[in-house]
Write a structure and sequence with these properties.
This protein is α+β, with helices and mostly antiparallel strands and 151 residues long. 36% of the residues lie in helices and 23% in strands. The protein contains 4 helices and 5 strands; from the N terminus they run βααββααββ. Helix 1 packs antiparallel against helix 2 and helix 2 runs antiparallel to helix 4.
Length: 151
């Protein structure tokens, strides 16, 4: 199977994350990921989309972009936001800001766990600034046993 790409854009509202989560879960299952790994993929997607919606979007009209790439070896998800809610402020998470978030992460706090979850569960995790002033988060999940899949 050659690489296939799926492009999605959702409004910057939490309401739209669940349908994307269900779609990616069904896709991962049909690619041959185990039930546990599908749950991991959905959790990571939920976390990075939630971060994009809540921290990386000026308002619901801006939207969050997703690019999902699949082939016989892996599922790759890129989530792109356009920056924070403060007009004119670029919202790229600097290494210093990421370090601060990780240092303040605690079991007693509901916030700050999404990046840690994505790093822990994905086979590859990368965050980069984008030209829109926001953040691109890329995660990759590798298939342990490639299958022939018709797409």
């Amino acid at each position: 199977m050659a690489q296939s790409d799926i492009q999605l854009q959702i409004p910057s509202a939490a309401f739209y994350i669940e349908p994307v989560r269900a779609f990616v879960g069904n896709l991962a299952q049909s690619l041959g990921f185990s039930r546990k790994r599908v749950a991991d993929i959905q959790l990571v997607l939920d976390e990075i989309c939630s971060n994009a919606v809540h921290h990386g979007s000026a308002d619901a009209t801006v939207g969050v972009k997703l690019c999902i790439s699949i082939d016989t070896r892996a599922l790759e998800i890129l989530v792109r936001d356009t920056g924070g809610r403060h007009t004119g402020e670029k919202n790229w998470l600097t290494h210093e800001r990421l370090s601060e978030i990780e240092m303040n992460r605690s079991p007693n706090n509901e916030r700050g766990h999404g990046i840690f979850i994505a790093k822990s569960l994905a086979d590859m995790h990368d965050m980069q600034p984008n030209e829109a002033g926001g953040t691109d988060v890329r995660v990759v999940f590798r298939l342990s046993k490639p299958r022939d899949i018709e797409i």
